Amino acid sequence: MTTALVRRLGLRHPIVQAPMAGGGDTAALVAAVSEAGGLGSIGAAYLAPTEIVARGRAIRALTTRPFAINLFAPSPAPAQPDPSAALAAVAPFYRDLGLPLPEAPGSGGLDFDAQLDAALESGASLFSFTFGLLPDTAMQRIRAKGLLIAGTATTPGEARRLAAAGADIVVTQGGEAGGHRGSFEADQRSHEIGSLALVPQAVDASGLPVIASGGIMDGRGIAAALALGAAAAQLGTAFLVTEEAGIPEAYKAAILAARAEDTRITRAFSGRPARGIANRFMDSVERQPGATLPFPLQNVLTRPLRSAGAKAGRAEVLSLWAGQGLELARRLSAGALVAALAEETRSALERLQALAREA
Ligand SMILES: Cc1cc2nc3c(=O)[nH]c(=O)nc-3n(C[C@H](O)[C@H](O)[C@H](O)COP(=O)(O)O)c2cc1C
Predict the structure, then answer these.
(1) Residue with the nearest Cα to atom 15 of ligand 1?
(2) Helix (H) or strand (E) holding 126
(3) pTM reported for the whole predicted model
(4) Distance 84 CA to ligand 1 centre (A)
(5) For residue range 116-155, what is the model confidence (pLDDT) as tens digits?
(6) How far does residue 39's CA lie from ligand 1's centre (Å)?
(7) Beta-carbon neighbour count of residue 75 at 10 Å?
(8) Confidence class for position 23, pLDDT limits 50, 70, 90
(9) Nearest residue CA, atom 13 of ligand 1?
(10) At 338, phi and psi to the nearest 5?
């Protein structure tokens, strides 16, 4: 069960652990997935350059197998809107957790160039990105360092643009996906395109190897992605509940208890559309018009609340990013999950082969 991309990446299975900025993808998780023959990924977007280098070293201490690193494509700083409605909307939650009320966030700007410098020293063999296209200079630097380049597409048009910009691989993000939407053309409507429709259209539009993501939780989903023309599958939510994932226990418990229909797309936590399990914070902020600052300011505004909520085990203030496949989540070690996924994929493909023979 291999594809040209799997061989090129030096993997044993067509399985990628999604980069998950914000703490899910610990060095232990990334290394366990890579050791098991999949591709572990560091979601480095919220890490400082020194943390990126340290994470790479920590992974290298655990495995010599390939891994990926991921950043957010740089975007212009947003205009500073009047923050009063956003401050008022979060205030009751801050009070409830005994936190001092926040001030208007000045900037949430990430220093992309410094992060890229560090990412190129991390030891990763694949560089992936989301939220747009990279500047040409960045593409050239990544290529010069010998890393493969993968960009995220939520529409066939975005896949086409990534191919034109020189990406080696397209990661499709179907509307089922947990976490932030990677959209850069169809911000509002991209989540309406599910993986079943997106993958084959992106394969045809880009002409590149596609890694499918969004709603894939087991070997049936991976086999389906391969049948649609993908070269591998990328799973986020499935890895979030593994033992090695670094999210709070209350978050793991929320995923394991939720129903498929409990997630929705919200801007309430970060200012950018993202899919997560609905909770009290989401409901409350969404009810108040104009109470959400643009990304990344809203992300900065809610960060102390989310950190305190994580320590206190209060899931009602956490951004519970998760995809629509969550009822299939399994609490396993990451290595056991990769082994189960590989075995299930093999048996799903064998079942299809048997059907083909009978036909
Ligand atoms: C908690 C979480 C954090 C994520 N962070 C990132 C990220 O930093 N970069 C990125 O390209 N994708 C990120 N994603 C999206 C994943 O790459 C992927 O598209 C998604 O997890 C696939 O859907 P699934 O969760 O249904 O498997 C994140 C997803 C989750 C659930």
Answers:
(1) 179
(2) strand 126-130
(3) 0.97
(4) 31
(5) 999 999 999 999 999 999 999 999 999 999 999 999 999 9
(6) 14
(7) 16
(8) confident
(9) 20
(10) -60, -45
Cβ-contact 89, 291 below 8 angstroms: yes
Residue 251 banded pLDDT, cuts 50, 70, 90: very high
235 lines ligand 1 (CB under 6 A): yes
Percentage of the residues of the chain whose pLDDT score is greater than 90 = 91
- Return d(Cα 300, Cα 297) in angstroms, integer: 5
Confidence of residue 187 (pLDDT cuts 50, 70, 90): low
Q: Where in the chain is the domain with CATH 3.20.20.70?
A: 1-74+111-247+329-359
Q: Whose CA is nearest to atom 3 of ligand 1?
A: 20
Question: Does the structural domain 1-74+111-247+329-359 have CATH classification 3.20.20.70?
Answer: yes
Measured CA to CA, the distance from residue 282 to residue 291 in angstroms comes to 11
**Ligand 1 atom nearest to 213, measured from its CA:** 22
- The residue whose CA is least distant from atom 5 of ligand 1 is 20
Distance 19 CA to ligand 1 centre (A): 6
For residues 115 and 132, give the distance between their C-alpha atoms in angstroms, rounded to a whole number.
16
What are 57's two structure tokens? 């070293």
